[in-house]
Amino acid sequence: MTRFFARLLAAFAVLGAAPAMAQPVDTGHLVAELVARDQSIAPGATTYVALRQKIDKGWHTYWRNSGDSGEATRIAWTLPAGWTAGDIVWPAPTRQPTGPLMNYGYQGEVLLPVPVTAPADAKPGQSVTLKAAATFLVCEEICVPEDAVLTLSLPVVEGLAEPNPAWSGPIAKALSDAPTPAAFTSVFAKQGTTLALAITGQALKGADVSQAYFFPFDSTVIDHAKPQVIERGPDGLTLTLTPGYAFQEGDGPKAMAGVLSLGDKAYEIGATAGAPPPGASGLGAPPSKAVGGGGGALGLPLAAAFAFLGGLILNLMPCVFPILAMKAASLAGHAHERRVAQGQGLAFLAGVLATFLALAVALIAVRAGGAAVGWGFQLQSPPVVAGLALLMLAVALNLSGVFEVGSSLQGVGTGLAGKRGMAGAFFTGALAVVVAAPCTAPFMAPALGWALTQSAPAAITVFLALGLGFAAPFALAAFVPGLLTRLPKPGPWMEGFKKLMAFPMYGAAAWLVWVLTIQAGNTALARIFAAAVVLALAAWLLGVAQHRRAQGGKPLALAGIGGALAVVAALAAVWPSYGEPQAASSAAAEGGTANVPYEAYSPEKLAAAQAAGKPVFVNFTAAWCVTCQVNEKVALTSQGVADAFKQTGAVYLKADWTLKDAVIEAELAKHGRAGVPLYLVYGAKGGEGVILPQILTEGLIVRALKDAQGR
Length: 711
Description:
Immunoglobulin-like, 4 domains, eight-stranded mixed β-sheet, six-stranded mixed β-sheet
């Protein structure tokens, strides 16, 4: 009977002193309270009591490492004799950008569970009061220190505790989601001005690492505000970080611990200094799942189909008009010679495919070596741009009749047949791909973005599909008799048309010289102009030699001098390397178009604009990107767009990729892109950027900015 009354008394104690009786405290910018996983506790048992924070919208508190600024939440416990409280079980934080700073913490509602253990001699039937003095730093644009003294009554009972119906589930979830040590091998190595953190393990094989981010426990080991570039590997990943103060003296720390967050999962890792393993890299940046359609969701069939469509549309880009016009004239010249026309169509196709294949192999090889490159990467090199400028000049001089290759460089005119005509068609295909490199057509961007995150065979398949689409109209036209017979008949007009086509090539050469001055400064003008004069002299000497040979002479010396001068001009254009100007790109400097002011892009400026609640328009561009320049002139400089920027208060950021830039390359890869243009619009309330089409119009930009103002 005595035992019965003892149990009955304990039951009443549980009902009368339930932890739900704890009172929340409003500290000013958050509401805090203590909540328990269980309704009671047995002698010697452990339960979890969580500090619940319900934070005002737009404000945040801090993780154990607050980042560049701030202060972690602290709890000072006052417990009955023999009772103990352990350390906070910290949930994985989120990034909290504030101006140029990057902080780590929590928004909305967060539970910080703490293990609380009762002594073995705790008396059943009693109710104990747990007291916690919590201090918070709560921040928006300003930071306010706040505190609360919180209490919780917890009854002691015999046997297993009953779960608290209100909080057992949320606290259990907080504990299960909290980062835990994983069976990873983690090493780090300082490499020049960067820090490589390589992580491998079974859980990372084939995992989605597109949202990978390292939150260090020590605030001094990395520069928190700098981006973390992700490189996948067959066994894990490598994060390229910027070293912090801890690496400024001596060899730096021997160990580095923290949390690796993958977005939906988080792991505690402890890295030691050492050489990164091969399995942590080599597969490129992860595909993106960004809003607006990155390349991450594409499989090989869809990526190849997108590439084929992109190749077809690439024929409509302005950069390839001169070459394709010459090819059309070549087909017209053989419209009534079916076999010759078909042979030239196949040779053109072979030239296109061979050049696309060479570009794909080079691009894959350079990326495998760790370089941050994408579509059009060759045009980020001043020597390559200078060499292409001279090539365009040589083509123009040939079309103008200064000298000849065969009967004509492109196979235009009479007397072409056999090998000479085939070689001309093959070279035309190769040249078409070279001049198409500055352009990115619709459908191309997601296809190439996907391809460069896949294996080499998959990437090459996509590039070949792109080449097939690009070459298809002219290759197929050569095999359709009805189309060939509709083409104009050969005649004197073709020679005039050929010379007319020289002027777009002169324009292409001039444009490439302009790109070169942006990359290497105005001092590059003297060098490229000198090389151009020498090349023009070489072309003229070759033309004179060809004319004398046609009259029965043997001007070998004259031809030899011309050839030697051409070699000298080419060497002068590409060697030695060009130095970079003080401002690497005039397009990257802060300024603006005729109507819309902009600032140079950086992740910090984007974060600051988002923190200020402003819509943001980010323009990923390059001086050598023809599509980018057309969009600038047609859409971005219009008065309607300027008015939309003023009305919405949107911030315009320009990310110039004229020269190599690892930060921009990482952002392109994040959105499933391998090249420019890329246009992102971020809403005033934050969130992911929406990707706009690659061909812009005034109305499209105005609508996007107005939509961003309300989201």
